Amino acid sequence: MKKTYENALRLLDSRRRKGRPKEIAGSGGVPSISEAPGVTGTPNLRGIPSLVGMHEWLYLLGHSNNDVNNINIIHIAGTKGKGSTCAFTRSFLHVHGLRTGFPGKVGLYTSPDLRGIRERIQINNKPVSEALFTQYFFEVWDGLSSQSALTPGHDGKDKMPRFLQLLALIAFHTFIRERTDVAIFETHHGGEYDATNVIPKPAVTGITAIALDHVAQLGPTIENVAWHKSGIFKHGVPAFSSSQDPAVISVFQARAKEKEVPLKFVEVDQSLPKDAWALHAPVQRINCSLALAIAEAFLELKAPAESRSLTPEDIAQGIERFNWPGRYETIVEGNNHWFLDGAHNELSVKHVAEWFAKTALDGSKSSPYVLIFTHISEERDCNALMECLAHSLRENGIRPRYIIFTTYQERLDGNTRIDKTLKSLLSPPPDVLTMYSEGWKKIDPQAEIITENAIEGALHAARKIGEKEGGMRTLITGSLHLVGGVLNLLRPLE
């Protein structure tokens, strides 16, 4: 096989698992918090934890614990705001590095990608190039496949990493080979048993807002989720968390005591600029404050003695240069304004409604509000999510005149880009558009409802409204899959 970018993507895609395990390993599934084990315990889990095998695979690639520790990892977990917090942290450290020389190279590993797989592995604010991704992918793939007999098997037969494990390994390999001065790693889903938790001793850890999510894997209570997320705490490593519910705080404090971790809960920093565009969404002020605390702690530990703090100018520039596609993002096309956020649960759509109401009012009040929405999932009540968004918009004074429902299919001709990593989600239930249309009509019989089978068609429909009305303000939300397709059509990845 030729070592091309396209072939790297095909091999990577072959490592997707067909679906989450249907059976719970053991007798009781994920334990309740009263049964949750200590640091050395092993609870019953759904399937094989993704952490299994990561140490051995890194070793087979020639990377020791010291190699991993030497790239100075900041490890961030949470339910909401992980990506934004990582991006704010990256922005602060990058600006500081431009001024002082440290850190000179800032790595970032996040998921999911929106426009292409390379978005998940970035250095100094840019996705790695196709050439670099291809080079490091095949170094990892060839290095592991040639020694597959020695790697840990997950099912008695298959001894290669699964999709997310492989991506994390490529990220570690890339940052070690590129000698980054800091590497910011976002967890995938949990924490304790997440593939990224192979990090022996991060420089700093952080946890964003905790809410119920991925309950089939993490457990049915907020305490279960908190236990898993705080699994990234490491002995003696400073940890920071945004404000949390009392039940979450209790779990975090217990785990911090167990691991002898200095833990600090971060409130919103009142010194942040009041009118910064990146902070229009109130939740982003929380994420930014947490990132600021994390970045300052990192510099205190790792920077040269003469430059161990962020200046007010660093902070202002870091916020100004903040960029996190598809999260509280605005794109302007003449009189047409697109407002994008990949919110996909009830808590996040409430935040989006508040942000949209505040931000969209800055534009022309004569142009109509438009909503483009879809959410296709077996795990969530899609109709309930739509209803929550509708009521949240109304509570914030927004009543969209036009509602456009669509699917995850990107283009009208059905073509799919080679680096799209969401292929399995392209086929919605046959009645999803009818379900959404009928549901919204019950909420607002006066709204004009449009259905489009592809995201491209939804954008065309919104533009036609803009032409007719002299402009529009369109909110696009409900799923990162939807927002990713929109971004690829409006602003493809370079």
TrEMBL record:
GO molecular function: ATP binding; metal ion binding; tetrahydrofolylpolyglutamate synthase activity
Claim: Repressor is one of the keywords in the record: no
Stretches for region Disordered: 16-41
Catalytic activity from the UniProt record: (6S)-5,6,7,8-tetrahydrofolyl-(gamma-L-Glu)(n) + L-glutamate + ATP = (6S)-5,6,7,8-tetrahydrofolyl-(gamma-L-Glu)(n+1) + ADP + phosphate + H(+)
Domain of life per record: Eukaryota
Pathway participation: Cofactor biosynthesis; tetrahydrofolylpolyglutamate biosynthesis
Binding locations of Mg(2+): 111, 186, 214
One GO location term (cellular component): mitochondrial matrix
Gene Ontology biological-process entries: one-carbon metabolic process
Enzyme class: ligase
EC nos: 6.3.2.17
Cellular compartment(s): Cytoplasm; Mitochondrion inner membrane; Mitochondrion matrix
Keywords: ATP-binding, Cytoplasm, Ligase, Magnesium, Membrane, Metal-binding, Mitochondrion, Mitochondrion inner membrane, Nucleotide-binding, One-carbon metabolism
Main location: cytoplasm
Cofactor(s) this protein requires: a monovalent cation
Protein name as catalogued: Folylpolyglutamate synthase
Species this protein is from: Ascodesmis nigricans
